[in-house]
């Protein structure tokens, strides 16, 4: 279904390139559309927050990263996760790129929550140099999150 929508989008007349801002080019070969040579632009909400797509993405963006990372294990159906996620993202943004935030949907990536020993959502993990250094479970207020992040940044 998604591939059909992507093909329809690529076939449409999308010729206007965004002028500036948060737009980042994604070459069409990355999207596996050999019939098109167009460049698609995607928007990234924050330069410090991203969604984990798969195992290799987790390795590249979190485990092998020189920047400490906070992992937000969440689910779409989880009420507390909907409160914690934006709050944690706001606190990470205040750290001015000293730490990044990776969103992990536990329904899409069950292998990651099993490997990370995440038993409940919402759970936050702090990783530095590929090692887990701290963890919290459930909602935290901004002061607690700030202490958690300061400890990670050290």
Task: Describe the structure using short key phrases.
single chain, globular, two-stranded antiparallel sheet, 154 residues, 5 helices, 34% helix, 5-stranded mixed β-sheet, disordered N terminus, Thioredoxin_domain, alpha/beta, Thioredoxin-like_sf, Thioredoxin_CS, 2 domains, Glutaredoxin
Provide a concise account of the structure shown.
One of its GO terms (biological process) is cell redox homeostasis. With 154 residues, the protein is of the alpha/beta class.
Question: Can you offer a commentary on this structure?
Answer:
With 154 residues, this protein is an alpha/beta fold. It has 2 domains: 2-43, no CATH class; 49-153, Glutaredoxin (3-Layer(aba) Sandwich). 34% of the residues lie in helices and 25% in strands. It has helices at residues 2-11, 55-63, 79-93, 110-115, 142-153; strands at residues 23-27, 39-43, 49-51, 69-74, 100-105, 123-128, 131-137. Strands 3-5-4-6-7 form a 5-stranded mixed sheet, sandwiched between helices. Strands 1-2 form a two-stranded antiparallel sheet. A hairpin with a 2-residue loop joins strand 6 (123-128) and strand 7. Helix 3 (79-93) packs across helix 5. The relative contact order is 0.15. The model is unreliable at 1-6, 12-31 and 39-44 (pLDDT under 50). Belongs to the thioredoxin family. Residues 20-154 form the Thioredoxin domain. InterPro entries: Thioredoxin-like_sf, Thioredoxin_CS, Thioredoxin_domain.
């Amino acid at each position: 279904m998604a591939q059909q929508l992507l093909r329809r989008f690529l076939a449409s007349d999308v010729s206007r390139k965004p002028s500036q801002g948060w737009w980042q080019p994604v070459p069409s070969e990355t999207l596996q559309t050999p019939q098109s040579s167009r460049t698609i632009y995607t928007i990234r909400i924050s330069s410090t927050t991203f969604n984990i797509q798969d195992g290799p993405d987790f390795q590249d963006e979190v485990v092998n990263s020189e920047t400490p990372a906070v992992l937000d294990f969440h689910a779409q159906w989880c009420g507390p996760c909907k409160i914690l996620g934006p709050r944690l993202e706001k606190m990470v943004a205040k750290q001015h790129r000293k730490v990044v935030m990776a969103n992990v949907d536990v329904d899409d990536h069950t292998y990651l929550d099993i490997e990370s020993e995440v038993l409940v959502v919402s759970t936050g993990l702090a990783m530095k140099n590929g090692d887990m250094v701290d963890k919290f479970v459930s909602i935290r207020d901004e002061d607690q999150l700030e202490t958690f992040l300061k400890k990670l940044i050290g």
